[in-house]
């Protein structure tokens, strides 16, 4: 099996194994935590059964992430990334246990929502650190293999954690103790991820060069300039900027489909008054999507060497168009699950290719900022998708016209990106070596 062969190729790299274990355990905890939030925001009887309600909840959840992203980039280019993984998970432990305590003693209130948003923001910071660290432990041709394997298996680990959270929510009696139990288990898993990060050397994950305290304060004080310089660098390189643009575009399209899937699961394929049945239906949609993610792990390293990484993105966009064409015809369970699997393959395959392009064609001095911009675009695109879904989707979630437009959107993306890749297949050369620290205008 290709996955096993890829793992065998990467497994001799000791620090890869250690970083990989941190990702798996950390993202397993993410899954437990996020399923609890999804149940609270989207599948509790009193919450979010309309397109506007679901979209508003997503906007509340994701807008803070677009704020975290820029700060993450500056800090990840200055701080020891290993320390970020160690301390960041400990911060999540404290936040999660505080949320659990509040839910037992006071119930769900504004403080729970605020702390949940902070915890999710820390999580996005950790994911950026994991992505920026990978090229430090894997190099050469194995980087594409690692990018096809690691994020997708991390997503699978999040799925396992989500399944654990879902089972807890299903078997334990409803109430505050059930919600708190899932959070305590998530906190224990986060603590394990922090302990695993401690096995890596303090300097092993970079950055290659770090500023002193005064330089760091100056960099934080001119954050906007630093991001502008990072964006200019990516544009000058060519391929990373185009890849980030396509990632944001496909995330926007996927966001509309994701919100539609929640509404279809709750209001069309289940009794709208039975939130538990709606959650179970949506879980099957997520499971089908996870099958597509797994297929991307196998197919990306197999097919992309033949098509090229840019050609693989075009092929994935074409698969996305097929999935939406199916949904434009019907919302029945079987075709819906098949479309979810195909879209999962398309979305994850595109992500693997984009991650590889950004990592391969970006100097380490800018890599943290590149993934910070990635984070901002990723979440801002989903917020934009939520705004579109609130106005374009009916409360049932299914609209033939909307899915037809999404089909056309994937086709346009495939054609546009393919044409750009043919004109500029490689990163644009820039004069001189990339600086080891931020350029003068960013400090």
Automatic annotation (TrEMBL):
<feature type="compositionally biased region" description="Pro residues">
    <location>
        <begin position="428"/>
        <end position="443"/>
    </location>
</feature>
<protein>
    <submittedName>
        <fullName>MFS transporter</fullName>
    </submittedName>
</protein>
<keyword id="KW-0472">Membrane</keyword>
<keyword id="KW-1003">Cell membrane</keyword>
<feature type="region of interest" description="Disordered">
    <location>
        <begin position="424"/>
        <end position="443"/>
    </location>
</feature>
<feature type="domain" description="Major facilitator superfamily (MFS) profile">
    <location>
        <begin position="243"/>
        <end position="443"/>
    </location>
</feature>
<keyword id="KW-0812">Transmembrane</keyword>
<dbReference type="InterPro" id="IPR020846">
    <property type="entry name" value="MFS_dom"/>
</dbReference>
<feature type="transmembrane region" description="Helical">
    <location>
        <begin position="252"/>
        <end position="269"/>
    </location>
</feature>
<feature type="transmembrane region" description="Helical">
    <location>
        <begin position="180"/>
        <end position="200"/>
    </location>
</feature>
<dbReference type="InterPro" id="IPR036259">
    <property type="entry name" value="MFS_trans_sf"/>
</dbReference>
<feature type="transmembrane region" description="Helical">
    <location>
        <begin position="370"/>
        <end position="390"/>
    </location>
</feature>
<keyword id="KW-1133">Transmembrane helix</keyword>
<feature type="transmembrane region" description="Helical">
    <location>
        <begin position="281"/>
        <end position="300"/>
    </location>
</feature>
<feature type="transmembrane region" description="Helical">
    <location>
        <begin position="312"/>
        <end position="331"/>
    </location>
</feature>
<feature type="transmembrane region" description="Helical">
    <location>
        <begin position="20"/>
        <end position="43"/>
    </location>
</feature>
<feature type="transmembrane region" description="Helical">
    <location>
        <begin position="402"/>
        <end position="420"/>
    </location>
</feature>
<feature type="transmembrane region" description="Helical">
    <location>
        <begin position="142"/>
        <end position="168"/>
    </location>
</feature>
<feature type="transmembrane region" description="Helical">
    <location>
        <begin position="49"/>
        <end position="72"/>
    </location>
</feature>
